[in-house]
């Protein structure tokens, strides 16, 4: 299954495991790469640029296949040393980077000079057009269904993906609410060149998160997420638990970020993934939970998605056209 994405980024399958805080580590990324998809280490999961260099080397000991690094750029009073992380990425010979958050324009010349291709994550058509204008190689467009930050426009993928692909000339990766072959086929039909899955890859054997998290994702439905930070205009979709419910309740009465900071601290979310205490903090999960029914290896997951997608295209869609049957 070849697309502009597979040709440009040198991977076998049009499937991406995007950067996920605390989750995008060597064991998962290497397994995704070995499966023929594109995985991303999450730079800021590593405490220092030096730790990122070690994680890149650890990944290379596990796979010879292509993989990338996610660099999420967020406004902060005390920002991480982004330039140092960028230097590690370039010096390590990484050739694919996924940027997210703020505009990556200051980083692009450095990546371009080093021959690094950049995919920028966007939540709106206007941001995707700006990313294309400043010179990224591809965009990942996140629909409202996605885990993490879906933006403030609340446009679901069925509308957002074709709205983006009809106006962009660079490859588009569809993200948000995708967990299986049907999502891949739909994304291709909407004009995308591949799919990005986060929650689905978090629920695999190799994902470095507690088994309790994976089992909860399987048990959850598409209704088991909460939108927090809505009143602060920084919406985030997270798993439904006691902490996210408390945040929503506090926001309903009006609050400043300082009023909920103790509940949403990243260290508490990390405890969820590491200790399996599902109510220790907030943790991100998308509505695609409702489509996830098992915990496969990355190899089995990618093989199943590609095989079933080919069957849908060959048997259901092509057959419907040839025979004139109603689909």
UniProtKB/TrEMBL annotation:
Gene3D superfamilies: Aldolase class I (3.20.20.70). It is an enzyme of class 1 (oxidoreductase). Its EC number is 1.13.12.-. It comes from the Bacteria. SUPFAM superfamilies: Inosine monophosphate dehydrogenase (IMPDH). GO terms for molecular function: monooxygenase activity. Keywords: Flavoprotein, FMN, Monooxygenase, Oxidoreductase. The keyword Flavoprotein applies. This is Nitronate monooxygenase family protein. It comes from Rhodococcus parequi.
